[in-house]
Design a protein that fits this description.
By secondary structure, this protein is an alpha+beta fold. The protein is built from five helices and six strands, in the order αβααβββαβαβ.
Length: 172
């Protein structure tokens, strides 16, 4: 069985190498990702590898109605890096976005397009929506219960509706 999570773990590793920054890849719902980030905060050794984060949000639906593909899916991801509350927007743009998030995003999309388990057609365009989300770093993230699940403030890029077509295993 093919696992989209495993595909994105591999893509995350390749992105880390390509951009020269170790990414922390996590998957799950917001609350689960927040819990795992909190666990990483409890030790100085694991705290160091907590950011930048590449999160693949679940659940996602796999459409298996095309007989020529393993499945299609629409995914939501987030790339995030820690920020400080006293940074101005200009500082955050420079430090968080230009130095970390934008290079990670560019390498991530390139790696997704290169992965031979995925099919993006002859033009190899990775369809998605993109949002520089500075709200995370200015107000924090609030869960449906009104609480802040993340202890840290962070800046992020939301990658929404990333449309993938996963090839059948024999179609590599």
């Amino acid at each position: 069985m093919i696992s989209i999570v495993d595909i994105f773990k591999d893509i995350s590793r390749k992105t880390s190498v390509g951009v020269g920054i170790n990414l922390n890849f996590l998957f799950g719902e917001w609350a689960q990702i927040a819990r795992e980030m909190d666990i990483l905060s409890k030790s100085p050794i694991t705290e160091a590898g907590k950011w930048p984060l590449l999160a693949l949000f679940t659940p996602f639906e796999e459409d298996k109605s095309d007989p020529y593909l393993y499945c299609t899916a629409s995914l939501d991801l987030m790339i995030a890096t820690r920020t400080l509350s006293d940074y101005t927007n200009d500082q955050r743009l420079s430090i968080s976005y230009k130095e970390v998030l934008h290079p990670v995003y560019e390498h991530l999309i390139a790696e997704i397009g290169r992965d031979n388990r995925l099919d993006f057609g002859p033009k190899n365009i990775v369809p998605h929506r993109y949002v520089d989300n500075m709200r995370y770093g200015s107000r924090g993230v609030y869960g449906s219960d009104g609480k802040k699940p993340f202890a840290d403030l962070f800046d992020g890029i939301d990658i929404l509706n990333l449309e993938i077509k996963v090839k059948k295993p024999n179609c590599r």
